[in-house]
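Figure 3 (text version): structure tokens given as input.
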């Protein structure tokens, strides 16, 4: 006992010291965090929340949750509209009613864990959609009516009285639930903003909008490479969207986080005092990653909620060994695995833990149920694409819809596992996430190692199972794709494990309990201070869109300028075939759509074979695409293809512009380019891809060369390739990368005799400059090409020619 207590103190002290070193390193607080307006809003919101908590704690503690709920509903109605709030609450009520009817013989359980009952009902509806998504039956009126059935049955059976959470804490402890829910209330305000996250606009909102418009989902992997991925979270968003639009879908995400926090606090409070239970719950919820997930339509909250609720039934089974509990656990675990692929990696060790504890007959029945629920998206993917995890691991499963030679890997998250990984996850989170440093928070960094010290054979079996699930599941997910967001479903379980460790250690030393509490307080303060690290779009906190629409326009102009253009497109041509160029933000467009990214793999690959703007035009004709959403000519965004800008300028007409994006329509087919406006570059430095440059031949474009001008350059090693630069001035200088694998080249201006230049250099020199070419003042065209090959053909040379930009004088 003494040794374990001493080890706990050593681990806790080492964690605190390492945390201070990491925070003092400067990367976390040196990055952009709260804006001045966002910090003020956060301060005002905190003051108002604390005032409500203190006032009700002083006079009527039981009124806090009703008052908070009424305020949240009232403001949400102003922000996103009454229909959105009604739709989210109707789905919540229907889910509770469904779960309560299923467990109608367990009245004590319904009263003790209404949040688990609700999550079970929500999982049932998600699974219902997963089996029926391809049928055109998913309509708004259907869900308004069908959810009425369980609600009616629950009222008839008088089961609803157990749903409302009651604050039964006496005296000084009555305020702790308010602390536990405070970060969730912060995230609720963020969730009311329009969707701007990359995955939300590229996938999650697309599914919900398509279900609302077409009443089904076709699992077409040729249109979207992600169309057959696990989608239980998307099915929940789809039901909410059908009931109340985008606002309802986003509110459901916030509601699920509230259910997670409520369940965590309830479970932890059974093990440790209310103070520590609230601090641990708030420590989890204040993690910046939680705001990243909850403020968007990401589905990790759904997977986390199903896993945590499944563990409740696992605990009940370990106590009473009832088949019904094993079935409920397996159902929720399968629902989590069918929500996201990373969640399946966490479910796997949980399944192994169940195999060694369940009785043989129970194991067979629950295993069959869990497999039936969890395998649906993977079997669908296998039948539709030939790859059960399409588009991943295609080098093994070889779907004809994707190249089999190269696995799909996000180059941003390719990191090995070593002794610094735990530290780097916390303080260098940008290596493992779309957000900045500190995304993982600091509470888990300091307190999670205590679980390894406190774990022993005397631990409750559910604690050992949760520890095993977090450790093994986290390792599986990390080795798959080291993205912090993929680890999220395990974080509530990890919080529970920390609580069990705290319960064990406080039995040895009450000072350890106070030490853990102090670490939680510091972690919460730090995490609240760096909340925007995971999602910079939330640096201004809530939008106050209820009273000032301009705030929304400014917000979208900065983070999702495609969205107003999509709304306009929905108004004028909702069925138009449309391509997104250099963007995946399809959002709520219901027509056929493509993007020049791997999400629309066949379309992306077809454009990459173009050797001129006319090649793009040919491919666009094959797909019968009429509209385009693309960066404007003066946008600073990087174009991944050298022919995109020229194609848009020559063959499309602008329809509407918002910020630096345009909605454009395919122009009538022209027999020639004569008479089209030919812009000429004015004095100054220009990037290699713009309206003044025309490429011919198989050129590639590198958008990851940060030392190149504006981070990009164009390159080729094909002798047929040429580039034409139109400029107005008296001199021009080319900018390129000089390197050992660069070639001699020829330059001619206005068809005059060619002048040789060389881009060769024994050592690499970024943004190197060619000789200055003087010309009479006026309009000119420069041509850059390879020297003619000996046979006059188009053989590929052994070196490269590139263009990084040019300077006009």
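Below: residues designed for each position.
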């Amino acid at each position: 006992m003494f040794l374990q207590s001493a080890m706990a103190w050593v681990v806790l002290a080492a964690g605190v010291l390492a945390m201070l070193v990491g925070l003092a390193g400067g990367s976390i607080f040196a990055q952009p965090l709260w804006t001045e307006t966002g910090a003020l809003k956060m301060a005002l919101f905190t003051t108002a929340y604390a005032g409500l908590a203190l006032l009700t704690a002083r006079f009527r503690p039981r009124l806090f949750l009703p008052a908070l709920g009424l305020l949240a509903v009232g403001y949400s109605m102003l922000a996103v509209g009454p229909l959105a709030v009604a739709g989210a609450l109707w789905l919540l009520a229907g889910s509770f009613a469904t779960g309560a009817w299923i467990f109608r013989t367990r009245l004590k359980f319904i009263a003790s864990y209404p949040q688990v009952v609700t999550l079970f009902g929500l999982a049932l509806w998600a699974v219902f959609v997963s089996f029926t998504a391809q049928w055109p039956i998913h309509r708004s009126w259907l869900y308004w009516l069908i959810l009425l059935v369980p609600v009616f049955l629950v009222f008839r059976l008088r089961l609803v009285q157990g749903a409302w959470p009651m604050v039964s804490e006496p005296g000084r402890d009555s305020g702790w639930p308010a602390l536990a829910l405070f970060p969730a209330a912060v995230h609720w305000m963020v969730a009311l903003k329009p969707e701007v996250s990359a995955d939300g606009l590229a996938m999650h909102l697309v599914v919900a909008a398509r279900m609302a418009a077409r009443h089904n989902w076709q699992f077409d992997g040729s249109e979207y490479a992600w169309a057959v991925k696990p989608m239980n979270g998307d099915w929940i968003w789809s039901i909410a969207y059908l009931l109340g639009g985008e606002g309802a879908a986003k509110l459901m995400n916030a509601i699920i986080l509230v259910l997670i926090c409520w369940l965590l606090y309830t479970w932890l409070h059974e093990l440790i005092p209310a103070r520590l239970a609230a601090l641990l719950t708030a420590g989890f919820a204040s993690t910046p990653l939680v705001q990243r997930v909850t403020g968007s339509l990401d589905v990790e909250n759904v997977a986390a909620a199903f896993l945590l609720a499944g563990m409740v039934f696992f605990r009940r089974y370990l106590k009473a060994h009832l088949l019904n509990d094993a079935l409920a656990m397996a159902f929720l675990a399968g629902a989590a695995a069918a929500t996201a692929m990373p969640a399946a990696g966490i479910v796997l060790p949980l399944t192994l833990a169940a195999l060694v504890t369940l009785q043989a007959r129970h194991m067979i029945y629950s295993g069959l149920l869990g497999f039936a629920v969890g395998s649906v998206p993977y079997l669908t993917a296998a039948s539709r694409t030939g790859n059960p995890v399409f588009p991943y691991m295609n080098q093994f499963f070889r779907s004809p819809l994707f190249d089999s030679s190269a696995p799909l890997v996000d180059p941003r998250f390719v990191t090995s596992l070593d002794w610094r990984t735990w530290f780097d996850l916390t303080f260098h989170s940008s290596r493992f996430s779309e957000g900045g440093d500190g995304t993982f928070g600091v509470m888990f960094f300091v307190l999670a190692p205590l679980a390894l010290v406190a774990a022993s054979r005397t631990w409750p079996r559910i604690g050992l199972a949760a520890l095993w699930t977090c450790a093994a599941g986290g390792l599986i997910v990390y080795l798959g794709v080291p993205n912090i967001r993929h680890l999220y479903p395990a974080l509530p379980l990890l919080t529970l494990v920390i609580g069990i460790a705290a319960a064990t250690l406080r039995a040895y030393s009450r000072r350890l309990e106070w030490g853990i509490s102090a670490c939680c307080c510091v972690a919460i303060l730090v995490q609240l201070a760096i909340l925007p690290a995971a999602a910079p779009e939330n640096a201004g906190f809530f939008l106050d869109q209820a009273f000032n629409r301009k705030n929304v326009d400014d917000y979208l102009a900065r983070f999702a300028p495609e969205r107003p253009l999509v709304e306009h497109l929905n108004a004028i041509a909702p069925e138009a075939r449309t391509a997104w160029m250099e963007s995946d933000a399809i959002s709520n467009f219901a027509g056929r759509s493509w993007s020049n990214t791997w999400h629309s793999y066949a379309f992306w690959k077809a454009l990459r074979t173009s050797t001129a703007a006319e090649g793009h035009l040919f491919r666009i004709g094959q797909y019968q695409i009429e509209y385009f959403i693309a960066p404007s000519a003066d946008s600073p965004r990087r174009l991944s293809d050298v022919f995109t800008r020229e194609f848009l300028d020559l063959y499309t007409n602008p329809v509407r512009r918002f910020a630096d994006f345009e909605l454009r329509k395919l122009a009538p087919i022209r027999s020639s380019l004569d008479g089209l406006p030919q812009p000429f570059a004015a004095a100054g430095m220009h990037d290699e891809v713009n309206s003044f440059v025309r490429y011919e031949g198989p050129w590639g474009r590198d958008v990851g060369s940060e030392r190149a001008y504006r981070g990009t350059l164009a390159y080729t090693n094909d002798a047929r390739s040429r580039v034409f630069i139109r400029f107005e001035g008296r001199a021009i200088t080319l900018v390129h990368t000089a390197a050992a694998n660069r070639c001699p080249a020829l330059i001619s201006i206005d068809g005059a005799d060619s002048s040789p230049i060389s881009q060769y250099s024994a050592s690499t020199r970024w943004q190197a400059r060619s000789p200055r070419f003087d010309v009479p003042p006026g309009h000119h065209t420069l041509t850059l090409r390879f020297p003619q090959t000996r046979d006059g053909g188009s053989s590929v040379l052994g070196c490269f020619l590139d263009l990084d930009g040019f300077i006009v004088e």
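The longest strand covers residues 722-738.
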